[in-house]
Structures are given as C-alpha cells and as structure tokens.
Amino acid sequence: SRTISWFPGHMARAMREIAERLQKIDLIIETRDARIPLSSINPHLEQLVQSKDRLIVYNKVDLAAPQTPAETLAALRRMPGQNVEFTSLLTNSDPKRILKHIVEKARQRPAHSPPITAMVIGMPNVGKSYLINALRRVGLRGGRGTKAASTGARAGVTRRVSNIITVHRDPVVYLSDTPGVMMPYIADPLHALRVALTGGINEDVVDPEIMADYLLFILNRTNNTSYKDEYRLDQCTDDITELLPQVAQTIGAIGRGGEPRFNEAARNFIKRYQKGKFGRITLDPL
C-alpha cells in the first residue's frame, strides 16, 4: 500500500534537457506500453510537451490482449486531437507505417525548410530505443550500422538526451532519443505494480514476491491458466505461497538446505510474463 518513488537523477536531468530542446523539435513521438495503455501515461511529460505536434505510439501490442487497441481508443476519446498508432516491432510493417506518417509531415513543409526533427519520449522501458532502431532500419533499408540507440530489457538503459539520428534521407528526417522518465512518485500501489510488471520501474524498488502475487491475481481473474502448463503444475492456485515453491522446484531454485528460493522463483514468474509465455495480457482495466 506504500507510495512508490523512483526518480533517479538522470530522469530529472532528462526533463530539463527535453524542455531546453523543445523549441527545435517539430514532432513529439510519445511512446507508451500497450500492456498498460493508461498506466504508461506520464502526466508530467504530457504537460511539458502539450503545445507540440504529437504522435502517440503504443508499442508491444503483440504482448497486449487483442482487444486492447479498440478499448484504448475508446478510453482516449475524452482527449481529442491525438494521433495514435499501435505497433509491434517484430515486423517491419508497423515501423513503416509510423515512418510514413513522419515523412508525410516532412513533405508538407514549405520548400527549403530545414529537415524535420522528432523527439521520442516516454516512460522507462516502453521501447523508445527499439522504435528508433526500427524506424532507422526501415528508413535506411537495413544494412550495417543502422542500429543507433542502445536497447535493453531493464529500465534506464538510455541515460541522456541523444544528438539527432538520421532515419530517412529523402526527405531528411531526424530523431532524438531520450531517457525514460518516470513520475516522481506513484500514489496508487496497483498503478505502480502494473508499471513494475512491465519493467518500467527498477526491479530493486518493488518486492518481486508482491509483483508475482499481483500477476497471479491478474492471470486467475482473466481465467488464464497457462502458468499451470508452463511450470508443469498439477493444478492452478490463487495462493502465491503455494505457487512459488512449485515454481522454485520446477526451475531448480532450491537452496542448500532444500529451501525454495522464493525471490528467484518470483522473478522467473515475472520474466516469463514479460516474454509473453502466458499469452497476450493487458494489465490496465479499460
């Protein structure tokens, strides 16, 4: 029930750098996580960029429940004027569609205008750098050296606002990567758990056993019993203290005295969810 606060110094610096560079930015690409379409909205970033032309990209739609795009658009109707795209970076078709949107804006500019520059923003681990690399890959048609932004499965890989990155040559389109920026605190513990389960909060901040307990609740509430087969269990359970010893046994997380390592089992349970082993799941109620 405690308030979650995780706002490292590089995030505060990133907010300042984003604000300083906004005057030279033509388009904001705000990246969110389709598994938490509402919880991945950072109101502080929203306020900072509200005056700029903006494209909202919901990434990782391949990991979200199939009905999520329609339900998300319905939930966002109270915020008119937002251009929204849903993407999976597993194929080139979605990045191509987003790049086409940006290129069309570049071609609408008056002749002899400077190249269009877009800034990619969002909360940690929503796939900003993956998106930039995908846009660069399809825009420059692959080849060596097309990866321009560092990526990783944990929060906080990108630490500084980057210099401009070329993703298209005719017309020229530049992108700027930014660190993921969390809210200074999240008062709602369920909101915090949803963000943590998708990797948006450093794994040392939230107890993995609490995260695993909430994940088990979500799976059972949606009649998702895939974890039973994944861990070769005899039956499903709604008790995390029953599940974790069985998970530990299955993955070999047993201490010298034969005691199950609950923390390791919980992290494994969470990691398999993040990799899509339990199917397509949206954590936010829509």
UniProtKB/TrEMBL annotation:
The keyword Transmembrane does not apply. It comes from the Eukaryota. One of its GO terms (cellular component) is mitochondrion. Pfam families: MMR_HSR1. This is P-loop containing nucleoside triphosphate hydrolase protein. GO terms for molecular function: GTP binding; GTPase activity. One of its GO terms (biological process) is mitochondrial translation. Residues 12-184 form the CP-type G domain. Keywords: GTP-binding, Hydrolase, Nucleotide-binding. GTP binds at residues 59-62, 180. PROSITE patterns: G_CP.
